[in-house]
Design goal:
alpha+beta, nine-stranded antiparallel beta sheet, 35% helix, globular
């Protein structure tokens, strides 16, 4: 890949994505296979004024070894130095950049039940710190092509060819070509117009139907709003884009208000395992039944992580007529696949989806209906035959999606 194009992509992540501020600390999380791009990214952070850039590396084969051989108590332990690091982040609010490149199947064979229990053990310490940081700092998730991931997407190519093709796809769908800053400004403006219209309707329900069997009704929070694209930090008011790419218009639904069944239209990569061809049935707002052709046990583990894991935390609207969908590529990566199709998320909701959320305490936002969970896992349900009907507070029915695309 051309060095100047990579530099431009790194600059987009830093300036438009995380919007790194003068004197701010930056933490980058990445896989071991990306040293050159991470070096480039760190340099762009410093050029933007970062006071310090720290990189936290991960490596899937090592995680497999650790989960296999460590005791559950060790896996679930948060040592003193780890706790102090988390407290430091809470107090200093660094910009967080997450660079994805991992193998979608890289954790096949891992003891998901053991790892799930370890996460549960750690969550009691992590959760209050994370809650204290919510909406207060910039963060951005983007991706670069790892070899194993590229081979999964383009199995008939050599490694080099696959990586190059995945680079091209990432840059195209991330709107990273030409004047990327201007492209994102225009894109964010269009997304905001969609939000303004939806927010003017006073919607109280979304009804999803499709020929594949999807028939689901989801209740909405009266005080909630649809959001999209760029966001602003609470207090400092710094604008940033948490996802590159991003095509979704989303809201957090009413906790415990979902009835019916929904069928996936794309595989879900969860903790390095691919869950494929699955359905989820809701009763009284909670997951009552799941089925999957592949890795059903992993899906069952996911929805049992805590009480909130069995309830919805997000409804996202994404038209089939979007760059990612139009590329025709199955990315096997949630960041991209969720932006190619309408999706739902099990688990934690977004407090920022409540109008004037800064006026409420976290407890009050939960009482309004924002779901609370240690997970937030998007799964794709959109395709060319999905219809979504909105029901307003006064009972009017308004077509939101027709045949997989916006109906307005």
């Amino acid at each position: 890949m051309d060095a100047e194009r990579l530099k431009g992509f790194a600059e987009l992540i830093v300036r438009v994505g995380a919007n790194v501020q003068e004197g701010q600390e930056v933490i980058i999380q990445a896989e071991l296979d990306q040293p050159e791009f991470i070096k480039l990214l760190a340099e762009e952070c410093y050029k933007a004024g970062a006071a310090e850039v720290n990189v936290e590396w991960s490596y899937q084969p090592l995680k497999l070894v650790n989960v296999k051989y460590k005791s559950l108590d060790r896996l679930g332990e948060i040592k003193k130095w780890e706790h102090e690091k988390l407290i430091h982040r809470r107090d200093t609010l660094p910009a967080m950049i997450y660079i994805l490149s991992e193998d979608p199947n890289g954790l096949d064979g891992m003891d998901q039940e053991k790892w799930g229990k370890a996460v549960q053990m750690r969550w009691g310490i992590i959760k209050p710190i994370r809650d204290a940081m919510e909406n207060k700092h910039q963060w951005c998730i983007a991706a670069v092509p790892g070899v194993e991931w590229a081979r999964k997407v383009f199995p008939d190519c050599t490694d080099d060819e696959a990586v190059e093709k995945l680079w091209e796809a990432i840059l195209y769908t991330s709107r990273a070509e030409g004047d990327a800053v201007a492209a994102w400004r225009e894109h964010n403006a269009e997304l905001k117009l969609r939000c303004e219209y939806l927010n003017s309707l006073g919607l109280r329900e979304l009804r999803y139907t499709a020929p594949n069997g999807t028939d689901l009704t989801v209740g909405l929070i009266p005080e909630a709003q649809f959001l999209a694209g760029s966001e602003k930090t609470l207090g400092s008011g710094i604008t940033y884009n948490p996802n590159i790419p991003s095509e979704e218009v989303f809201t957090s639904p009413m906790k415990g208000r979902a009835e019916g069944i929904v069928y996936s239209t794309k595989p879900l990569s969860y903790r390095g395992v691919m869950i494929e061809n699955f359905s989820i049935r809701f009763e009284n707002g909670k997951v009552a039944e799941v089925h999957a052709e592949k890795n059903e046990d992993t899906l069952k583990t996911m929805v049992a992580m805590d009480e909130g894991a069995a309830m919805l935390g997000e409804c996202a609207l994404v038209p089939c007529d979007s760059p990612i969908s139009n590329s025709g590529i199955m990315f096997y990566n949630t960041l991209f696949d969720e932006n190619a199709a309408c999706h739902l998320a099990l688990g934690d909701g977004f407090t920022g989806c409540v109008k004037d959320y800064e006026k409420y305490s976290l407890e009050e936002l939960r009482e309004l209906g924002i779901n609370n969970s240690m997970i937030h896992e998007d799964f794709m349900i959109g395709f060319e035959a999905l219809d979504i009907l909105g029901v307003t507070e006064d009972g009017r029915e308004i077509q939101i999606f027709k045949n997989g695309n916006w109906a307005f």
